[in-house]
Structures are given as C-alpha cells and as structure tokens.
Amino acid sequence: MRRQEDRALQARIGHDFADASLLQQALTHRSFGTPHNERLEFLGDSVLSLALSNLLYERFPQLSEGELSRVRSNLVNQQALAELAIGLKLGQVLRLGEGEVKSGGRERPSILADALEALFGAVYLDGGLAPALAWIARLYQPVLVSLNPQTLGKDPKTLLQEWLQGQRLPLPVYRVLQAQGASHAQSFAVECEIAVLGITVPGSGNSRRLAEQEAAKAALQQAQQRQANKKAS
Amino acid sequence: MRRQEDRALQARIGHDFADASLLQQALTHRSFGTPHNERLEFLGDSVLSLALSNLLYERFPQLSEGELSRVRSNLVNQQALAELAIGLKLGQVLRLGEGEVKSGGRERPSILADALEALFGAVYLDGGLAPALAWIARLYQPVLVSLNPQTLGKDPKTLLQEWLQGQRLPLPVYRVLQAQGASHAQSFAVECEIAVLGITVPGSGNSRRLAEQEAAKAALQQAQQRQANKKAS
Q1: What is the mean pLDDT of each run of 10 residues along chain B (233 residues)?
Q2: ipTM, 2 decimals?
Q3: Which domain holds residue B65?
Q4: Is the CB of B89 inside 8 Å of chain A's CB atoms?
Q5: Which residue out of A57, A126, A133 would a mutagenesis test of the B interface target, given it has the greatest number of B Cβ atoms within 10 Å?
Q6: Which of A113, A146, A179 delimits the end of a domain?
C-alpha cells in the first residue's frame, strides 16, 4: 500500500527517487519519529526560493527587484504552499504521530506546507536542481499564468489612480474621518470618494496609509463593477 | 583597462563569462545607469541561500533546522557579504555614478554586498548552479572551517550551563535586579552569579531572556578567561 502511494506521488512530482529513503524522510513529521523532515525543509525552502526567483526573473523582465521580492513572498507563504500540498494529496501520505493524526494533522496548513518544502529539498538532493526546478515550474504554472504583470506589486491607491486616468476621470479624494490611539497603537478611519461616479467607501487601518489603501481597493472594485454592469446593460 | 580588470575578477571568481554583458550588469550600480544590478541581486540572493543551505546541510548533519537557519542568516548579512566583496576587490571594478564615487560608494557595505549578490546571480544565469555553488563554497571555505559545530546555534545560557557541567561545577543563578516600562517597551536588568568562582556579572535587555543571555555570555567569558589564566600560571 505504502509503495503504491509513494509511486503515485512520485508520478505527480515527475521525479523517480534514486534514494527512496529521502522521499520517506520528506514525508515524515517529527511527531512520527526520526529522521524527520525538518532539515530537508530547511534545504527545500532555499530550493523553492531559487526556483521561483528564476521563474519570476525570466517571466517579468520589467519588474524591479522590490516588486519581484513582493511577488515571490506571496508565492511562498504557508497558505499558498498548503494549497499546493492539498492539490498533491500530500496529507494522505504523510507519516504523523497518532496524536497528530487525531488532532487533524493531515489537514494542518503548517504541516502540509513544511512537508512540501521538505519534498523540494529531497528532490534537489536526489536529482539536483533541474528536476526540482521543473517540478516547481509545473506546480506554480497556474499561479504564474494568472499573475498580472500590469498590476503586480502596485498598491491599491496607485492602481485606482491609474485606472481613473485611463478613464479620463478626475482623481479620488481621501478624507481622514477619525484618528485615535497613542503612537504605538493608532487606528485610522478614512474614506475615499470618486465624486463623479458617486462612489464613497470607507477604509480603516493602523496607519493612515493602510486605511487609504483599503478604501482605494474597495473603491476600485466598485468602480470597475459599475463599469462592467454598464457595459452589460 | 576595463577588460584586464574584468579578466582578473573572473579569475578570482573561477568562472569565465560566456555572456560578458551579465558580468557588466552585475558590476553596475543604479547610480551609473541601466541596466543595473538590482534584478540580478534579487536572483543572486536566492542562489547564495541555496548554496549555503546545501553546504551547511552537508557539513553539519547534527544541527537542527532552527540552528541551520540561524547559522545561514549569520553568513548572509550585509557585513559578512561586504567583507567577502572587499576580499575580491569588488569596489575597484564597480561602475558607480560620479556622486556615489565621491561620497565613498566604493567602500559602502550596502553597495558592496548588493554587487556581490548580483555577481552570484550573474554566474548562475551564465553557467548554471554548479559554477555558482563551487565559487560560493570556495568563498565561504575559511568561514565554514572556523564554525564550531559544538557551539553553533546554541544560546549563551545553554553554553554556560554545558561548560559548568563539563567542569563539574554547580549551575549559575540568575537574578532580576530591575524591570521597568510598559509591556511594549520593557527593560530588564539582571545578574548572573557563579558563586563558586566568585563571578557576578550584569546583563540588560528588552526582555528577561535577552538580559539573562547577555549576562550568561559575559559570565562564560570571565570563567573561561580565569581558567586559561590559571592554567598559564
């Protein structure tokens, strides 16, 4: 049974392990025993980072270093990794301690994300960078395709301004409605108004900037939605 | 002249660039013009991380993931990179804007560290991971050799405790002398006493733990110094 599952996983990864013990180790959570997958995760984290850096560098020649870094960090967060792990049905083949299994460890995002990183490390150790890069490129293909280089890394206020300019409309007005709290724990309530469209939306956050970004994001959604409705009617 | 310098640098790196424009770009600071080295730095940062992860993973099979991460981050900080860049005489071949040159840009740690990372990226793009890994292994060889796997990643309190146990001495006593400030900005003053050696040293920090670590570090230094003196006399 174990063998069959492992073979199916290797098919999904697209790499046949020369050293099957590396695959086993990558799938072993520390609650199960040693050798577990934490050291492989350390390695795999760097493998993933280089693979994505390489993919993003080539795919987005116009993005700056700062924009590339922001995109990369969005792709490697725990939630993103856990979703990919679920797509690979990784939870079902993990070796977990009994307690972890009972408390839902097979669905826990941190365990899934760590195991996926460990698998990146294991593929790298077993076959070098090429198979790891090929697999990661395939895994992230749907995500990379849907990334929009026009909006990547731009904040909502900039996006709203650019969209309005594209429509030859006047710029939005931001107003602070409320600011309270001492300097280390402030909270701001603002609104963003696009008078010509009759749109006024609120936003809040720990800084004026964050509150305005939130309002701008909602305002842009409303404006675009309204335009789509107008076209449809 | 430029050619000669570049050839000398390539000899120090141990890689002949097939695409010389990559080498030029890596050596070009944004103050000089475009294409500059910032996107290569983005890539090179990941190349360095994977190379060091690989080296540390193999060299220290007994270190945990957390310890490996701590060691790696010590090796990739700006100061460490700038020192390596100075060893490569990188500052002399950088292409900087006039203003940067006048204000000492060739010696600025951030510029040197960034350019070195960009060079890692350029070697990777030009020749793949193998030459980058080989070069980074050579660059970090002196540092890696001097790393002590016995003490790596261990905090001062643990090191002090282990040292005392090795000497068959009783454990140290920590005392909080002062704690002040609200929860977000506390400061602690503590002392660490090794009564049997007549050593009492202070420590301070934003948390009790940090204050104790500082005191433990100083106490261990005193204890070891005293022992060395005793042996010498």
Answers
A1: 82 94 97 96 98 96 90 90 95 96 96 98 98 97 82 81 91 93 82 94 92 94 86 74
A2: 0.72
A3: 2-146
A4: no
A5: A57
A6: A146
